[in-house]
Every structure is written in C-alpha cells, then in structure tokens.
Design goal:
Structural class: alpha+beta
Strand order of the largest sheet: 5-4-9-2-1-11-14-13
Radius of gyration: 33 Å
Number of helices: 13
Largest sheet: 8 strands, mixed
Length: 702
C-alpha cells in the first residue's frame, strides 16, 4: 500500500472512531439531561402536592410517608381464613424515611406471608428468627435501602408492628397475609379485620368471601367503629350478598368523606363477620386436598351430659383488695361472690358439685360432691357469702383437696376442676414446676382443669401450664371490665358438655398417625367444635377415608361413622385458600407446639419444642413469638439474582433480558459490571468501533 492510500485510510479510521465516540458522548449528555429533567419534574410534583408553606420562618418540607391505598381481601373456606392486606406507601422526600403500622389480630392468627412491590418488581420476604431479622433490617436502614419487617409487638400475641424504611422518592406496595382457623364459640364463628391506618386513605376497601361446603346457617357482617358509627356511613359503605346456601360476600368501601366524618385519623375499628354452618348428629365433615385432610366434628341435638364440678376459690389476703379501677366493683372477693351466686343457680339438678376455699389452709363446703338440689344450692350460696380474705396462698393444697374429692366420686359424668386465684403460691409448695408435675400426675388424664387468673398480678403462666397439661384452658379476668360478668361468661362456655372421653380414629393404614393433630378430647361442649388435621400415608391406594367418632353421652356410649372420597376436589376450587388442608395442618401443629413450649417444665424440653416449632414456622412462613418476617430491596449494585419471586426462588426476566441492565432509578448492575440508563445503545456504539478498526487494519495489511 502506498503512502497516499495509507494516509487516506488513517484519516477515515480516525473519523469513524471520532463519530462513534461522539455518539456515546451525545448519548451520555442526553442521559444526564433526561435524568435532570426527571428529577426536576419530581421536585415540581412534590412542591405541587406538598401542604402550603409558611413564610421564611416556616420553609416547605415534605411530610412523612403517606398511604395512597389500602385493600383488604379475606377468603374463608371451611373455617380457615386467609386475609391479605395490600398497602401502597409513598415517600416523596429526597431522603430515606421510616414509618410503621400497628394492627391487631385474633390470638389464634398467624401472619403467613409478606412481600413488597417496588417499581413493578416483587421482593419476597424471608421468615427469620427474631434477632436475626432485626439485625438485617437495621443494616438495610443504615444503607438507606427500602426494607420492612413484621414482628410481634412486645409479648402481646395479638398485636403486630410493620416497621418500614423507604428510600428517597419511592413508592412501595406491601402485601401482608395472615391466616387462622376460626374456632366455634357459643354457637358461631367470628372473623375480625382490624383497620387503623391512622390517616385518611384515598382508596380504601375491604372484601370478605365465605365459602362453606357444609352449608351456611346464618351470617352477619358489621363495622364496629371506635367511638360510635353514623348509620348513613354503614348504609353507604357496607354491602352484603348471599350466594346460594354456601357462600356470602361482604364489601366495605368508605369514601374520603366517610373517613373524615368518622375521626381525624380516619377509619378505626373492626370489620366483624359472624356466622355458623349447618350441623347434624353425625361424625362431621372432612375435606381432602393434596394428601392432607381436615375433619370438623360438631354433633348437635344431644342432651347435656352430667358433670361433677369442684370450685377452688382463693381467699388469701390479696382477694380483699379492690377489683379494678372503678370503685363500684368493690373487692375481688366481692366480685367473685356475685359471679358464684349466678353460677350456682345455673348448675343443673342432675350435676354434682362442691366448693373449696384456700388461703394458708383449705376449707370445704361439703365433705364430698353433692347433687345440685335447690336446698344444696342455697347452702352453697350461704357458704360463699361468708367467705373472708385472709392469709397466704397455698394453691397446691387447694388443688390436692379438689382432685381427691373428684377421684373419690365414681359417678357417670365429666369431672371438672375450676380454680380461681389472684396471685402466686406463697405458702406450702411454692415451686411451680413441682406444682404442675404433681398435679398432672394426680389427675392422670381423668379431669379437665380450668384456671381463672383474677387481675394482672395473678400467675397466669402457672395456670396456663396447669390447664394445658390437663385438657382445659386458662383465662385472664381483667379489671378493665366488670369481673363478675367475665366469670359468669366463662362458666357459660363450659356449662353444657354434650360428650366426654371423645376418641376419633381413621381407616387403618390410611393416615400417618404421627401427623395427626389432637384427636382425643376429654370434653365436647355445646356451641363448640372439634377439629383434626393430618396427612394420608404416602402410597395410599384407597379411594375413601373412613372415620369413627366415639364418646360418652348422657345416656351412654355413642358412635358416629363417616366416609369421604379422597379424590374429591373442593367445590368452586377457585374460591378457597390455596393448599388450605396442608396449611391448616401446619397451623394446628404449630399452635400445639407453642402451647407445649409455654408449658414446658425444663429448659431441655423447651429447646427441643422451640426447634420443631421454628422449623415448621419457617417452612410455612408463619410469624410466631419465635420468628419475624423481613423483606429488603437489593441495592442497585447487587446481583440480579437477588431479586426474589413469589415462591422465594431466584427470578429472571428472560423475555426482556436485553434491557434488564437499567431501570428508572439508575441501573441494576449485574455480575462483571454493566451500564446505566442507555447501556444497550452504548454497547452497540463501542462494538461498532471495534469492528471498523478491525476492517481498517485488514485494509492496511492488504
């Protein structure tokens, strides 16, 4: 090649390189200009939407993150309720800001899922042990990342807190799901959705859908606003539709004007659904899905069976103290006397009973249990009226005497021990572990023990252990409302046993026995329901699941049988909770483990139960006292695979993978680096330069 041709080629080559680099520079300038325009537009929008500014002493500021919309969807299928709350939160500030929401759930509910949506992308949460979740959240905040966590508020199992950190100029939608098994009490199921956003929400809606294959007997839907509720709001905002005999739909949609009329903080209260299903004198109803089953048993139209009851009443010195904040309540002992008068009157003539009082020692109304004749009732009321508060609290002695009286009676009926106390053991045996261990051994599975903790100073933990080991339950009697009414209400729940010594069995070889939740019940009371869940054996070839429910009724032994096709899918399968049978099994299992965790007597036993409860809670994403849910938006320079999908696994957008290297916020950088806003075009420009140089070099060598 001669010198002229070489010079010409070099000039052309330099021109092409300059053009190529120039295009990149222009694109970079354009990108910078576009970004400046976007930032200016965002600042203009914030200034337009901000609250009016004052003078120079009161400059314009952007307020805390605000809720733009909140939508609540609840689906109830065979008593298993799944509720999802979707909340869109906007941070219009130029710096990261924190906010939080507090909400109340039923004591039986578990939070089961939590994820956030930012910029059209889904970031799935993880369930972690509480300390680990808090540490991860704090670290994300320190890096100004958008993050959120859901955790129990203190030791109250019904109050939760959602703690959120939003990065600058961010809109995020948080999806929170909680689930619970609705328990039948006093003849109905209740589901409550607590709404308290603490501000006026432009778009607010709550929907409830109930689907009960067993049939719906009745359903009531109401809104309970704290501080009262205008009737016109209810008529405008709440609608209820009934679909055939198995479904009910309710919707609450208050306008901004409705919310402003209710309070300065908008809506604050509960959407309450109360309903019952149809029942019969049979073995109940079974639903089977994906090798898991749920069995509801609630036979009706049975006569009340006999019961033998011993009341054990604390009369130590502290029972002479005031019962609550209101002077008219009088002392704890006076409230107990009012309640006992009504309870004694309600004991059925064919029942037997006795009353013991304990302080430092024990006094008994009768030597043994006696029938509930009118004469005996009057005598019992006189005994109670003459009780006085004095001495210490020898709880173990009171329990021993009551168990001895019940064990000495061989009459037919359900044996029940009800103990009421306001304090902690202070005389006799005071070691709690010893009290629980020796009491449980003496009962030996034959007596249902119920504990009533009177006031906030009572040892509820001890009563919960005693009742938990002995097929009863413990209740706290609060001083904030009339104690005598609470005592009477409690007794009403257990006043009418329909069956006792109930056993539930299934086809031999059909069920993995170790997966069965509680399936032996010492008692079944009117207005309640027994629930069993379990898993079919791997490789089970049968087409039907058979069950037998047996127990003792007033007139003797009874037995009910039921057969269910295991291949039958739920009716209207689009309107039930996904994998409801398996999740309900996990729910019941964790509930049982948490109870055992609370009543465990040794640290070794507690640790073993904690590990199992945590394992299942993590697997099914339940927030328990042992776990928290946390979700963190990855930093812009994190791996693309850190973006998580709904099922917790890595997610890639292969369809638009070519453009995944940038987003509106400045770019997600993948392994090995990447480019900002117009990175794909930059790549084309640089590759074109390389190709042209290569061609020019070939010409030079020619």
């Amino acid at each position: 090649m001669n010198a002229t041709n070489l010079s010409t080629t070099l000039i052309v080559l330099m021109f092409l390189v300059a053009c190529s680099l120039g295009s990149s520079i222009v694109l970079l300038i354009n990108k910078s200009y576009d970004a400046g325009e976007q930032q200016a537009a965002m600042r203009e929008r914030r200034n337009t939407e901000a609250t009016p500014c004052g003078d120079g002493d009161n400059p314009c500021t952007v307020g805390k993150p605000r809720i733009n919309s909140m939508t609540v969807n609840t689906t109830i299928f065979t008593r298993y309720a799944s509720t999802t709350v979707m909340t869109e939160v906007i941070n219009e500030a130029e710096t990261s800001q924190d906010t939080n929401f507090r909400f109340s759930l039923s004591k039986n509910a578990f939070i089961s899922d939590f994820f956030m949506e930012v910029g059209g992308r889904i970031y799935q949460s993880e369930v972690k042990e509480k300390e680990e979740a808090q540490k991860a959240f704090d670290e994300a905040k320190s890096r100004n990342q958008t993050a959120a966590q859901v955790k129990l508020e203190g030791d109250d199992f019904t109050k939760f807190e959602t703690e959120i950190s939003l990065s600058a100029d961010t809109t995020a939608t948080f999806h929170l799901t909680f689930q619970e098994l609705l328990r039948r009490e006093k003849g109905s199921y209740k589901h409550k959705v607590n709404l308290f956003p603490r501000e006026i929400v432009p778009q607010l809606r709550a929907d409830v859908y109930i689907n009960e294959p067993q049939g719906i007997k009745f359903a009531d839907v109401s809104w309970n606003q704290e501080g009262g509720l205008p009737t016109q709001f209810l008529e405008r905002a709440l609608t209820v539709e009934r679909e055939f005999g198995t479904a009910v739909t309710a919707s609450l949609q208050p306008s901004v004007a409705d919310q402003e009329a209710l309070s300065g903080e908008g809506i604050k209260g509960d959407l309450l659904v109360t309903y019952d299903v149809t029942h019969d004198v049979d073995a109940g109803n079974i639903e089977v899905l994906n090798n898991y089953f749920v069995h509801h048993i609630s036979p009706v139209n049975l006569e009340a069976t006999r019961k033998s009851v011993v009341f054990v009443i604390d009369v130590s010195g502290s029972m002479g103290e005031r019962a609550g904040d209101r002077e008219e309540y009088g002392t704890k002992l006076s409230q107990t006397k009012i309640a006992m008068s009504t309870i004694i009157n309600d004991i059925r003539p064919f029942d037997t009973f006795n009353i013991l009082s304990f302080s430092s020692d024990v006094n008994s109304w009768q030597r043994g249990l006696v029938t509930a004749s009118d004469r005996n009732k009057r005598s019992a009321q006189l005994f109670v009226e003459q009780l006085t508060a004095r001495g210490g609290t020898n709880m173990k002695l009171g329990l021993d005497e009551a168990i001895s009286r019940l064990n000495a009676v061989n009459s037919v009926g359900l044996p029940i021990l009800i103990i009421l106390t306001d304090g902690q053991p202070s005389s006799g045996v005071t070691n709690k572990e010893q009290i629980v261990r020796e009491t449980t051994a003496a009962i030996d599975g034959t007596i249902a023990l119920f504990g009533l903790a009177f006031g906030e100073d009572a040892d509820f933990d001890l009563l919960e252990k005693l009742s938990g080991f002995n097929q009863g339950l413990a209740r706290q009697i609060h001083s904030s409302s009339t104690p005598s009414d609470q005592l009477e209400g409690f007794y009403t729940e257990i006043a009418t046993p329909l069956l006792y010594n109930v056993g539930i069995s299934y086809s031999e070889g059909a069920v993995e026995l170790e997966t069965l939740t509680q399936h032996n019940f010492i008692s079944y009371f009117e207005g309640t329901e027994m629930v069993v869940a379990g898993k079919l054996k791997e490789g089970f070839q049968g087409t039907q699941l058979m069950t037998v429910v047996s127990g003792e009724a007033r007139d003797g032994a009874v037995e009910y049988e039921l057969t269910k096709d295991v291949e039958t899918a739920p009716d209207d399968s689009s309107r039930h909770v996904e994998d409801f049978a398996e999740r309900l099994w996990a729910y019941l299992t964790v509930q049982d483990l948490l109870l055992r965790y609370r009543i465990a007597l040794t640290d070794a036993e507690k640790e073993e139960i904690r590990e199992e409860a945590t394992r299942i809670a993590l697997e099914y994403k339940f927030v328990t006292p042992l776990t928290s849910l946390i979700v963190i938006k990855p930093e812009d320079n994190q791996n693309k695979d850190d973006f998580l999908s709904f099922d917790g696994g890595p997610k890639k957008d292969y369809e638009n993978d070519m453009y995944n290297t940038y987003n509106a916020g400045g770019g997600v950088v993948r392994n090995g680096g990447g480019y900002g806003g117009n990175g794909v075009i930059h790549s084309v420009s640089l590759w074109l330069t390389v190709v042209l140089v290569f061609v020019a070099c070939l010409q030079l060598l020619a």
